[in-house]
Design brief:
The complex is a heterodimer of chains A (about 210) and B (about 675).
Chain A (H helix, E strand, L loop, with lengths): L6 H25 L5 E11 H7 L8 E10 L3 E8 H12 L10 H26 L3 E3 L3 E5 L1 H4 L8 E10 L4 E10 L1 H23 L1
Antiparallel strand pairs in A: 1-6, 2-3, 2-4, 2-5, 3-7, 6-7
Helix pairs in contact in A: 1-4
Chain B lengths: L11 H9 L4 E5 L5 E4 L1 H5 L13 H4 L7 H12 L3 E3 L25 E9 L5 E9 L1 H56 L6 H31 L8 E4 H12 L7 E10 L4 E4 L1 H18 L2 E12 L5 E9 L21 H7 L5 H11 L3 E7 L3 E12 L16 E5 L3 H12 L4 E5 L2 H10 L7 E5 L7 H10 L7 E6 L6 H8 L3 E4 L4 H12 L1 H6 L7 H8 L8 E5 L3 H13 L3 E5 L2 H10 L8 E5 L7 H10 L4 H4 L3 E5 L6 H7 L4 E4 L4 H15 L1
Parallel strand pairs in B: 7-9, 13-14, 13-15, 15-16, 16-17, 18-19, 18-20, 20-21, 21-22
Antiparallel strand pairs in B: 1-2, 1-5, 3-4, 4-5, 6-8, 8-12, 9-10, 10-12, 11-12
Classes of the chains: A alpha+beta (about 210), B alpha/beta (about 675).
Chain lengths: ~210, ~675
């Protein structure tokens, strides 16, 4: 990548996603009886390889992920990932199950997909709204497997928008990870949109 | 064959009919959320009749649409193009769709999974497609499965609880059994000190050994149930690894006195002498493993090899191998050795005895101390049990650091056992001693001839050797004039009465029992080489006891002791033991009585020590101690050392005793030797 986003631009990006994720939390709270707080402590743009290692899943850790592909102004795939245990824990807490199951049943899998859908949509919505981008988004899919099966990218040169999400539930905290895996051209377009957005805000403030 | 076939040419009515006949619900709405299409499935599962509601808002034909997430999803799809998948689980009020012919009957409302998608038709305006899947049957199936799984889980929890309760019961029972055992063992101990006929001595000894075996079994069961109940506790105290292992192996070698088996302790790999850990539990593990080895070895050697390493997290890893030359274990049985209630061969129980719990307890103890245990074996050749545990480095200095300068001393070691030869040489070489090894008496004589006169200061000779035994070798050496000043140390596996005189007469300067503790050997060597003794002309035969008497000169005073104990048999046991040690004892039957006695005692002859039972009627040991420590004003009384005696050895008992103000703690059945040690310790501390 030729030039990185400035700290100010990263701040803006974090804020944008925080707003989106806040909406997602609202939507989630309407869906379930539990209160869920969602926060984004971290947004970064990283080479895929770095982002992958930053996910901190072991080679053998089973991961549950919800994936939505997108194309348009920029293209790639968005993933929401949990360790299998965290995914199970989240679903069973949100569904109010007494005993967490050992594996996701088909319906529970659908529930996780819906949760992922809500959260990823919130991110997409933000990008579309704030960055005035035009993208076409596919239906969510569920993938389970180790990191190499879930976190797939075509080239080492690709970049990821890496977002860590904290789910604060009444009894525990669960970490989830969002990654937008994009090719280099898409990333440049994306960064350009972020710059434009920050510029327009500064402009407004100056007026 | 058509090469440029394209699906764009498919006639519209084919597309229409196929969508209309789909076995899932399809609704299409426009940007204003007006219905422009619904398929046959929707009609069949709702009250909508042909062409009803077309062009109307979707909420007009599907009641409740406005309140659902579906309406939000449609808005998102129409405005932002976001697709939504609505699962059945988070959809509390599904659309008013019912199974065929059951419209309006809530029992037949369809469980739905809904996909909402934007359709881009290119003209700038967009449409939204709603797809409804019927998931009722899967929901029903899963509810059933979930119920089964929950039931299963509940049963499992119940079973675990029952198991814990059982272990708790077992622990309590063991405690109940230990109390009378205390009486039995104590009485037998006292009985053996009375005047008895030969026959009575024999019977008493048999009864004692049976009671000991029973107590060991009981301890196994108690330990096992404590582990099961999660109540076993590991202590963290500073201890001297070398002297602990030395003492332990020496006492274990008593077990082999009827066999041709030699126990060899190899501690050359121990680099950390003072450590923090649980010496009692370590003892228990090694005792168990060596006990097994002795049981299954008729001939040969049992090597206890210990070494320490420091790992990167700052822990000392103690690695111990117990290697025997016994009957061995079949390969496929090695892994199940450590399971509770299993023995390699059920018939072994009859031949060799044991509960089959020992190794399982050992394994749990190793795990509790951060390590593990493995076994390997060759059938008919022997077994190798290897375990490791984590210890912490201690900052204390060893009590008896050998402060001996033996460097440059030249010693000949004669022993037919190669392992022993190696171990002993390595240990001595660590202190700068120059060692020459001989594997037989004959070789020793050759070597002594070969080296110049007075090259060796000393020869260490094993007694039990084939062809030429140690005493025979000694006689041969004494015949040689030029070797008059060579000092001889005898090592023997078998200690008999009269040995000392016998070896002294032969010309040995010292004799030590195998396995030799290196510190003892070093001390012995030093004493023998010390010229003072020679000058005075009083050369005593150096034995282990002599060495011990040189090191320890603490005089054990007799004391006035108050015993607080409600059980009459236990009273007699304790009084018997204490009197044997020369103490005078008074008895109080409970806490209240104890306080009365203490308050009445004469100021000139106060009690020096209190032995306090914990469970007593009226006022128990904890309450009594608290009272003595806090309520009694006379500081001569309120500071008397109190040692608790309790049959409880559960987690937290020790803390409970100390918290109430007691100084120390001894568990029942009372081990006379241990009791004496504790009494001496506390009497010395006040003097």
């Amino acid at each position: 990548m030729k030039d990185n986003l400035s700290p100010l631009e990263i701040d803006a990006l974090t804020e944008i996603f925080n707003i989106g994720i806040g909406r997602a939390a609202n939507a989630l709270n309407k869906m379930v009886s539990q209160t869920v707080d969602l926060t984004i402590p971290q947004v970064e743009i990283l080479p895929n390889k770095t982002a992958k290692s930053k996910l901190n899943f072991g080679e053998c850790t089973e991961i549950s992920a919800v994936i939505q592909r997108f194309e348009g102004d920029f293209q790639g795939q968005a993933l929401l990932m949990f360790s299998k245990e965290s995914g199970l824990q989240l679903v069973s807490t949100l569904l109010g199950n007494k005993f967490p199951p050992e594996a996701l049943s088909e319906l529970e899998q659908d529930s996780l997909v819906e949760i992922g859908n809500v959260i990823l949509n919130a991110c997409f919505g933000t990008v579309i709204n704030f960055l005035k981008s035009s993208i076409k988004i596919e239906m969510p899919e569920f993938v389970q497997g180790d990191i190499n099966k879930v976190y797939v990218y075509s080239s080492e040169n690709d970049w990821s928008l890496y977002i860590k999400v904290k789910f604060s539930l009444p009894k525990e905290n669960i970490d989830g990870f969002i990654s937008f895996i994009m090719d280099i051209t898409s990333l440049e377009v994306f960064q350009e949109s972020v710059r434009k957005f920050v510029f327009s805000i500064c402009q407004k403030n100056a007026d | 064959m058509q090469t440029n076939a394209t699906m764009n040419n498919i006639p519209k009515d084919i597309l229409f009919h196929s969508i209309d006949e789909l076995s899932l619900g399809v609704i299409i709405i426009d940007q204003n959320q007006h219905v422009i299409f619904y398929n046959n499935w929707i009609k069949e599962h709702s009250a909508i009749s042909e062409n009803e509601g077309l062009g109307c808002n979707i909420s007009d034909i599907l009641a409740g649409f406005n309140d659902t997430r579906l309406s939000e999803a449609c808005t998102e799809a129409l405005t932002l193009g976001l697709p939504n998948k609505l699962s059945n689980t988070f959809n509390p009020t599904p659309l008013a769709l019912y199974q065929k012919n059951h419209f309006g009957d809530e029992n037949y409302r369809i469980q739905q999974q809904i996909s909402v998608k934007n359709i881009n038709i290119g003209s700038g305006s967009s449409l939204c497609e709603i797809l409804i899947h019927d998931v009722s049957s899967s929901v029903k199936k899963e509810l059933m499965l979930k119920k089964l799984a929950d039931e299963n889980k509940k049963q499992q929890l119940k079973a675990e609880l029952a198991n814990r309760t059982k272990s708790q019961f077992l622990a309590n029972m063991s405690h109940e059994i230990r109390t009378p055992m205390n009486g039995v063992l104590g009485m037998l101990n006292l009985l053996s000190t009375t005047d008895q006929t030969q026959e009575q001595v024999h019977f008493t000894r048999l009864a004692e050994s049976s009671a000991d075996t029973l107590l060991n079994l009981l301890n196994d069961i108690l330990d096992f149930s404590k582990i099961e109940a999660g109540k076993l506790e590991v202590e963290l105290i500073d201890f001297d690894l070398l002297s602990n292992l030395g003492d332990l192996v020496q006492s274990l070698s008593m077990k082999t006195k009827d066999k041709q088996v030699e126990i060899i302790l190899d501690i050359t790999g121990i680099e950390h002498q003072m450590v923090i850990g649980d010496p009692g539990r370590l003892r228990q593990i090694i005792t168990n493993l060596v006990g097994n080895a002795v049981k299954f070895t008729q001939k040969g050697e049992i090597v206890v090899r210990a070494k320490t390493t420091l790992n990167e997290t700052g822990y000392i890893i103690l690695n111990v191998n117990v290697i025997d030359t016994g009957i061995g274990i079949p390969d496929d049985k090695c892994s199940m050795l450590f399971d509770a209630f299993t023995q390699v061969d059920v018939s072994t129980t009859r031949e060799y005895g044991g509960t089959g719990l020992g190794l399982s307890i050992v394994k749990q103890l190793c795990q509790l101390m951060g390590g593990q245990i493995t076994a390997s074996s060759v059938l008919g050749q022997g077994s190798d049990f290897s375990f490791n545990i984590q210890l912490k480095p201690s900052e204390e200095l060893p009590l008896s650091q050998p402060n001996i300068n033996l460097s440059g001393i030249k010693v000949l070691i004669v022993d037919d056992n190669h392992t022993n030869l190696e171990v002993l040489s390595k240990q001595l070489e660590a202190f700068g001693v120059e060692v020459v090894q001989a594997e037989s008496g004959k070789e020793a004589l050759i070597l002594l001839n070969k080296y110049e006169i007075n090259y060796f200061s000393m020869a260490i000779i094993d007694m039990q050797m084939p062809k030429m035994s140690g005493d025979m070798l000694c006689t041969e050496i004494k015949k040689i004039k030029s070797l008059q000043s060579l000092k001889l140390i005898m090592l023997t596996s078998i200690g008999k009465r009269g040995d000392a005189q016998h070896f002294s007469k032969l010309g040995f300067s010292a004799y030590l029992l195998k396995p030799v503790v290196i510190n003892d050997l070093l001390n012995t060597m030093e004493v023998i080489l010390d010229d003072d003794h020679l000058l005075k002309g009083t050369v005593p035969l150096v034995t282990r006891h002599y060495i011990a008497s040189l090191q320890k000169t603490d005089n054990v005073p007799s004391a006035k002791i108050l015993l607080v104990e409600d059980n009459r048999i236990n009273q007699q046991v304790a009084v018997g033991i204490l009197k044997k040690f020369g103490h005078s004892v008074d008895i109080a039957v409970n806490g209240v009585n104890a306080i009365e006695v203490l308050e009445k005692q004469g100021a000139d002859t106060p009690y020096q020590l209190i032995l306090m039972d914990c469970q007593m009627p009226e006022m128990d040991g904890y309450q009594a101690t608290e009272y003595i420590r806090t309520e009694i004003v006379n500081s001569n009384i309120s500071t008397i050392p109190i040692i608790a005696m309790t049959a409880n050895t559960m987690k937290g008992d020790k803390e409970k005793c100390l918290a109430s103000g007691m100084n120390d703690y001894i568990s029942k059945p009372i081990n006379p030797k241990l009791l004496q040690e504790k009494i001496n310790l506390w009497l010395n501390s006040i003097n």
